[in-house]
Amino acid sequence: MKQLRNLFIAIVLFFGAQEVNAQTKVGHIDVSALMTSMPAMKAAEAQLTKLREGYDTEYKKLVAEYQTKAAQYQKEAETAGDVLNQTRSQEMQDMGTRIQKYQDDASKSLQDKQIELQKPLTEKALAAIQKVARAKGVQYVLDSTLGSGVLLADGMDLLADVKKELGF
What backbone phi and psi angles, to 5 degrees, belong to 143? Predict the structure, then answer.
């Protein structure tokens, strides 16, 4: 009798758990596709491209100046004295260090600007995803971006609804 009761409880728990699982709604969205299709993101990317091109232009100028001086100093090295050659060598090292520092600073500045521009867009997209998911009764939303770990995305795709919510 006790075994029969335990079996009955186990069956009720098993089917009860199945019922709870059947009510859970899971959706997915390709966050990468959403972000790249946002008009504001395209504007941010254009702004970053312009800034990157400005840094690249300045970097190329610095490198060209470095190469010109290096070639000139190398030509004159035999006729210049040891003290002058040593001074020039130190000048070239300092110039190389400045070029490297400029490149590092430009890279950090670009990264900071990218974060500054993308953070509000990411927050806006996340808010829209949450709003649409709640409106559709979805408890869990997975990111179905390629390589995100989602192996099958046959559930409810929220991308079109989130785009509509964002107005594009």
Answer: -85, 115
